[in-house]
Design goal:
alpha/beta; Rossmann fold; Alpha-Beta Plaits; six-stranded parallel beta sheet; five-stranded antiparallel beta sheet; 6 helices; elongated
Length: 222
């Protein structure tokens, strides 16, 4: 896979190293000449001094050949510009953008060419809630331009589905169970697998499904 990363800060460098280690070909772009010159050589990583907000720079970096573009700069405006150019000018199949300030998260959508927006504060909040919350609906991750989200529910003693067989769950339209975690292990549920207290139900939910529909099904009465 060919990946272009805009921004050679700590996030961009770590991502480039990790992807290269896994066998992918990476181009790491940054307009800071001194920063790029100071970077140690890494196999499968090509460093490019360029302004990723300029179309000519992206043409020189062959963005039209990229499978994925990741905008990881510390400036949300730059990340949005890079994303839009990658998608609209070069038709990159997958564009991922870093959100630095949570208040800007709503901007990172398909209108700006963003397929997946990654907001560290939101991820941390979800992980904190997931660690301490039982009987609550926790949003773990939002992606695909905000149209799909990954959610988790840990069933408590008040859940109306306790004792029900997995196959009897009638989920709202646009929701699907992707994993069941029991005692710290992923369980492949069969249709006759009973749901128990402490089970973690992980769901993939589309925008057409409201959070309250999930709460009503799994948490009502808790």
């Amino acid at each position: 896979m060919r990946v272009a990363i805009a921004g050679a800060g700590n996030v961009g460098r770590f991502l480039a190293e990790d992807l290269a280690r896994n066998g992918h070909v990476v181009e790491l772009l940054d307009r800071d000449v001194d920063l790029v010159a100071s970077l140690p050589p890494i196999e499968r990583v090509r460093y490019i001094v360029a302004d990723a907000c300029e179309v000519s720079s992206l043409q020189a970096a062959h963005f039209d050949e990229m499978d994925v573009v990741v905008a990881t700069t510390g400036d949300d405006e730059d990340n949005l510009v890079v994303s839009q150019l990658a998608k609209q000018e070069f038709a990159v199949p997958r564009v991922i953008a870093r959100v630095n300030h949570p208040k800007n998260h709503w901007l990172f959508n398909e209108m700006w060419g963003v397929d997946v927006a990654v907001s560290t504060p939101h991820l941390l909040a979800g992980l904190v809630e997931e660690a301490v919350s039982v009987g609550m609906l926790v949003r773990l991750l939002q992606f695909e331009g905000g149209h799909t989200r990954l959610m988790e529910v840990t069933l408590d003693a008040g859940s109306p589905v306790l004792g029900s067989e997995f196959g009897s769950l009638v989920l709202p339209r646009g929701a699907a169970v992707v994993a069941l975690v029991r005692d710290g292990r992923v369980v492949v549920p069969r249709s006759d697998t009973p749901l128990d207290v402490g089970d973690e139900v992980v769901l993939l939910v589309s925008a057409q499904c409201e959070d309250d529909e999930i709460r009503t099904l799994l948490l009502q009465g808790s």
